[in-house]
Design brief:
The complex is a heterodimer. Chain A is of the alpha+beta class. Chain A has helices spanning about 15-25, 30-35, 35-40, 50-65; strands spanning about 5-15, 70-80, 90-100, 105-115, 120-130. The mean pLDDT of chain A is about 95. Chain B is an all-alpha fold. The chains are: A alpha+beta, B mainly alpha.
Chain lengths: ~130, ~80
């Protein structure tokens, strides 16, 4: 069982493969994500990665990185604070916010930093433990 | 905190979690509120524990027959 001291950290590269698979799967070809000129004309350094790629990382964290597999995500929130660009390294830091033994639920809070140490997103995810 | 005050605060939590207005009374239960299903039950308990800064046990929760009994538990805890 996880305790309140549990902390998880892992770095992920938002690679061409991750980006192209997301594009192919979900078909969000908004120019912010696909057109460098469009993105730079709006003040970004390049095409901006889809924020929901980070939600995919949260799915991986919950599904694969906890010490138990009997988990289901009940609720998730995320705020995108700064853009993530192609080939950025984002580091997920997740820790237990609270444990609700009464309903077999655990709430985590998390954030992502980029390779410069800038926070690019933060949020919460609440899971249930399947009986 | 009185039972009536607890009920009023619990009602606000229900409105927020269920995302629509409900009028609770002491006899309210999952069988009288359509939106109160197994998943929202978890969200309700978590929100109530957070709001009142109290923890329940699963045995306590299972012993409640209605909102009134939940309010009785809360009144004792926050006293």
């Amino acid at each position: 069982m996880i305790t309140k001291e549990f902390v998880f950290t892992k770095t992920f590269t938002i690679s061409e493969k991750v980006y192209s698979n997301f594009l192919e799967t979900f078909q969000d070809h908004n120019p912010l994500h696909t057109n460098k000129e469009f993105a730079t004309s709006h003040g970004f350094e390049g095409i901006v990665m889809h924020g929901n790629i980070l939600n995919g990382i949260i799915s991986y964290f919950i599904g694969e990185c906890l010490p138990m597999k009997n988990v289901i995500i009940h609720m998730q929130t995320i705020k995108f604070l700064n853009p993530v660009y192609l080939n950025d390294d984002v580091t997920l830091v997740a820790e237990v916010e609270d444990i609700y033994e009464s309903v077999n639920s655990i709430a985590f809070k998390f954030y992502f930093n980029n390779q410069s140490g800038k926070k690019v997103a933060k949020g919460t995810v609440q899971i249930g433990l399947l009986k | 905190m009185t039972k009536e005050e607890v009920l009023a605060q619990v009602n606000n939590i229900f409105n927020d979690v269920l995302d629509e207005p409900v009028v609770l009374n002491y006899d309210s239960s999952a069988s009288t509120i359509d939106e109160w299903d197994s998943l929202t039950h978890i969200q309700l308990v978590v929100a109530i524990e957070k709001h009142f800064k109290q923890k329940f046990t699963s045995a306590e929760i299972q012993s409640w027959k209605n909102v009134g009994e939940m309010c009785d538990s809360l009144v004792k805890k926050v006293a």
